[in-house]
Amino acid sequence: xxxxxxxxxxxxxxxxxxxxxxxxxxxxxxxxxxxxxxxxxxxxxxxxxxxxxxxxxxxxxxxxxxxxxxxxxxxxxxxxxxxxxxxxxxxxxxxxxxxxxxxxxxxxxxxxxxxxxxxxxxxxxxxxxxxxxxxxxxxxxxxxxxxxxxxxxxxxxxxxxxxxxxxxxxxxxxxxxxxxxxxxxxxxxxxxxxxxxxxxxxxxxxxxxxxxxxxxxxxxxxxxxxxxxxxxxxxxxxxxxxxxxxxxxxxxxxxxxxxxxxxxxxxxxxxxxxxxxx
Amino acid sequence: xxxxxxxxxxxxxxxxxxxxxxxxxxxxxxxxxxxxxxxxxxxxxxxxxxxxxxxxxxxxxxxxxxxxxxxxxxxxxxxxxxxxxxxxxxxxxxxxxxxxxxxxxxxxxxxxxxxxxxxxxxxxxxxxxxxxxxxxxxxxxxxxxxxxxxxxxxxxxxxxxxxxxxxxxxxxxxxxxxxxxxxxxxxxxxxxxxxxxxxxxxxxxxxxxxxxxxxxxxxxxxxxxxxxxxxxxxxxxxxxxxxxxxxxxxxxxxxxxxxxxxxxxxxxxxxxxxxxxxxxxxxxxxxxxxxxxxxxxxxxxxxxxxxxxxxxxxxxxxx
Lengths: 278, 319
Ligand SMILES: Nc1ncnc2c1ncn2[C@@H]1O[C@H](COP(=O)(O)OP(=O)(O)OP(=O)(O)O)[C@@H](O)[C@H]1O
Ligand SMILES: [Mg+2]
What we know:
The complex is a heterodimer of chains A (278) and B (319). Chain A has 278 residues and is mainly alpha-helical. Helix content of chain A is 73%, strand content 0%. Chain A has one domain (43-277). Chain A contains twelve helices and no strands. In chain B, helix 3 (94-104) packs across helix 4 (109-122), helix 3 runs parallel beside helix 5 and helix 8 packs across helix 11 (300-318). The longest helix of chain B is centred in the last third of the chain and has 19 residues, at 300-318. Chain B is elongated and about 75 Å long. At the A-B interface, helix 1 and helix 5 of A face helix 2, strand 6 and helix 3 of B. The complex binds adenosine-5'-triphosphate and magnesium ion (MG).
């Protein structure tokens, strides 16, 4: 054994960062291969969101109006966010699948970093979502959505969006490890997230809501993400731009996501360390 | 001497169900221990504790000289695990599966590739190496699964019911692969529900039932404990049984044992094969319809019946 595998106090192998990285890279590779081999998944991950954009943008765009721009421009951030939430069931189902077929037992019997399997899956799902986002962007442009800001702000918005998807994936990983059933893991989040979605600024301008509802909708973490996207893309805001949650949407969104990751990542990794196939 | 696997007083409870109730095991380097037991005996739980997947509630275990709870990662780099359910990634090819395992063992890219190619070759999987694992047959998948546990040249391998559900041909192939590993000096702990599998492969057998080792020994020792081969005679009418038993008793010194159905009688044969012809001669011309006249090895059922009966008797004599 070489020097890098000397034992530290707890008796574990020394914390060698680069092996953790190579573990993650290997497992991300595994999931990218999966994507290539499941063209049907790629289709469902692009066609459905594209349909969403057309449906919401064109149908609602003709009946709802917002100040400071078109409804199409307003709603894109909402649709992007909504679609990113499908990372929850997606990752949950994949995690359950790994538990079912005994792969987790095999991975856990290897001298590898225990977070790598989850990183591989969440990052793999993120790659799929990046394709989704590209497809949606194209359709969005076709129905009249425009980015009004510069290159870096626009790129920042995409980064926020993908980070949001990544965060949702970790929630999915926790759910999958806890529920251990694909169906439960898929239905639980929609029950939870649907009300959150409609009580946010995703589809409606919050300025017109009654006071208490407006407070909820403004402080909703989903609203933070949606508001951040709108401000970075220069799209119409959900309410008066001087409102605190709109003005500081980007730091709020980043704060929310950091908080969620700080909770879900350790919980998922701890759960995973004790998980065995059944 | 340092054991390849050594476990003492392993206990594990799931809720208030005790899966293991104090298990002791020892495996000498380069030997095979067969853990034999029925469904729910605790075989998988033993393997999971020894392969660092599950922590025991009590007791301690060393694998390859390392404590499984203190140095799990060091243990993991020295073992190979083939779980009860074939753990292959169905959406990767066989080759990709093995290369992934090699990479996760930190062998380095080219070494991982080389080992994968070598194993595919040795385990006769070359033809299907680049097909998606999903399309492989159960037997090939199991072989690939075993290959995956051999990627990093482990010194100890754990095999949880490696041949359950395989046809006789695949079974024999897998047995050969396991023997080859033993020849290279690898120590093996395998679980099985089949006595003949343990008999074929194991140097020593531990019989577990309800989370306890109820017997341990070499296959021969266990067989003598259970009794060796028996001659079974089945007749059409139970009314004729006294006649048959009488004839057997006069012809041989063995004590005939009549089964519960009243139509089958058996006598131990062990190595005294002459008694087979003696009994055959004694039955010749008897006014009885003999349906079956056959030698039978003890089945797992017999082993359990005999062993649990023994322990019952011991308890009774102690009491
Ligand atoms: N994760 C778990 N949660 C609850 N109970 C469990 C768990 N794992 C095992 N058990 C219980 O512990 C007992 C021993 O299980 P184990 O899987 O070790 O048996 P086994 O000998 O491998 O059986 P089989 O031949 O069916 O594979 C069983 O009664 C089982 O129901
Ligand atoms: Mg089992």
